[in-house]
Amino acid sequence: MTSSSIDPGIIARLGRGLRNTLDAWFGPDQPLPISAPPNMPPRATDYPVAYNVNIQPRTLEAISFAQMRSLADSFDLLRLCIETRKDQVSRVPWTFRPKPRLDDRGQRHSSQAVSANNDSRIAQLTDFFSSPDREHTWQQWIRLLLEDLLVLDAPALAPLSSSDGELWSPGKPLYALEVIDGATIARKIDATGRTPAPPAVAYQQILKGMPAVNFTAGQLIYRPRNVRAHKFFGFSPVEQIILTINIGLRRQMHLLNYYTEGNVPEALVQTPKEWSADQISEFQEWF
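Request: output the structure for the sequence above.
Response:
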């Protein structure tokens, strides 16, 4: 007679099942033991292994940045909506004011209005944002930013410290806020699925299909409007109505063909009057 050892895991499962059966009728049993290393922090999402190796932005998404831009430029009704919203935002007047200072009783200091007029920082900010990138006016600059916000939901700004394109860093003066094409920015993540903190690389600009520029989280202002926990890129208004855009485009093509091609066939073929409907149908299929 031979004896064999029983796997401790089998005994543990049997014991766990017996305890739950005794504790509750057809009980839920205990959760399976975790397979991750002990004390591992939770992840923002179940990202693919080696996600940072992906070069092109949105490679894991069904809709690319190029497709969204093509749809936004092809459907004239959508383009009119986008341009109208850009007009509305760019016409909004703006001004800088100091934050209210409250006294011990929670009331605003009476001297604040006088000091605001003499605050040199307000004059500097007003002068800077009259042309944030040192090339376009405020109205032109905000329209550049809104285009990527509404179409791609990938607005990106690169703070520069000099006219030759040097990236800003703490301790350097801010020269300009350059609008960067959001379709060229690929996000990178840390082990928890979140944006890496400086000095780790948080974003890469992809040019000619290759990584060209590295940005830390402090060197690029990347602010999608509609973020979701299970996605690394924003959910733009254009992406949300892709099906409606496709229906509209097909409707427009139908109307265009009506006025260009017409509803008269290019040729008419006569058949003998003795032919039956079946003979005509057979001839049409053969022809």
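Residues 62 and 239 are 10 Å apart (CA to CA).
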